[in-house]
Amino acid sequence: MKNLRSHLRLTFALSLTVLLMQCQRPEEPVRPALLLPKEKMASLLINLHIAEAQVEASRLAPDSARAMFNQLRRDLFWRYETTDSAFYQSYRYYAVHDKDLDKIYGDVIDSLSVRETKLGEKK
């Protein structure tokens, strides 16, 4: 009888664990209405990383650097005719689809590497 109770407790504990793990699995995200195409997303990310590097190189005080980056980011979103909301929703969507995000960041890294090489050649 004791053996049966401990077996039932163990079965219950395992079932509860599996159930809780299933509850925490991320659901397949709904495709955002304003999903940025992968090419546009990569181009925007390239320019955001360049803006971030410009701000870091400026050696401004943290508050001024944050304000400068926020302005550069707003300008980029305006230039790309998108919103920060559409960008972040697209980023989350691609992040869940990790192969898509890997492809996007592969393009970003390749482009930034080429730019860095060209900049090094000029010096």
Description:
The protein is an all-alpha fold and 123 residues long. The protein has one domain. 80% of the residues lie in helices and 0% in strands. Helix 2 runs antiparallel to helix 3, helix 2 (38-58) crosses helix 5 (98-122) and helix 4 packs across helix 5. The longest helix has 25 residues, at 98-122. The chain is globular. It starts with a helix and ends with a helix. The mean pLDDT is 82.
SSE layout:
Layout: H1 2-23, H2 38-58, H3 62-79, H4 84-96, H5 98-122
In short:
With 123 residues, the chain is mainly α. The protein has 5 helices and no strands.
How would you describe this structure in keywords?
mainly alpha; 123 residues; 80% helix; globular
Question: How would a crystallographer describe the biggest sheet?
Answer: none
Envelope shape = globular
Oligomer: single chain
Task: Give the low-pLDDT segments.
Answer: none
Give me the number of helical elements: 5
The average pLDDT score comes to: 82
By helix and strand content, what is the structural category? mainly alpha
**Number of individual domains:** 1
Level of helix content?
Answer: over 70%
Q: N-to-C SSE series?
A: HHHHH
- What would you report as the Rg, rounded to the nearest angstrom? 23 Å
Q: What is the CA–CA distance across the termini?
A: 82 Å
Strand content: under 5%
Care to count the β-strands? 0
Protein name: DUF4296 domain-containing protein
Pfam families: DUF4296
InterPro entries: DUF4296
Organism: Hymenobacter cavernae
